[in-house]
Input
Amino acid sequence: MREWVADPDRSVLVSVEDGELTGFVSCGMTRDEPPEPGVGELHSFFVGAGRWRRGTGRALMAAALADLAERGYEQATVWSFDANERANAFYEAHGFTRDGAQVREAVWADILQVRYRRTLS
Output
C-alpha cells in the first residue's frame, strides 16, 4: 500500500466515517500493455459490506472519475470478474460498459476478468 501512496501516477482516495475506514479507490495511469494514450484506470475499488447502498461507493466513484479527468485522461477503465454481478451492475450504473477485453490470470485462479470503459467528460 505504501508504494501506491508514494506513486505520483496513482491516487488513493479513502472514505472514513466515525474514524473507521469504510472504503477506498485507487486510480491513475492504465496498467494495460501497451498503454492507450488518454486512458486512466480504476486499479482497485472497495467498499466494506456494511456500507453498501449508503452512498460510499457513489462518492468514491465520483471522486475517482474527477481525479482521472483532472489528470487529463479522456477515458477510464476498470477490470472486474465476469461473474461479479454486484460490482458489474455498480460499474454499469456509473456509465461503464464492457469493451470486449478479457483476461485470465493465474494469480486470480484463471477466473475470467472483463474490462469496462467509459468516457470522462
User: Anything to note?
Assistant: The chain has one domain: 2-119. The CA atoms of residues 57 and 90 lie 9 Å apart. The first strand starts at residue 10 and ends at 17.
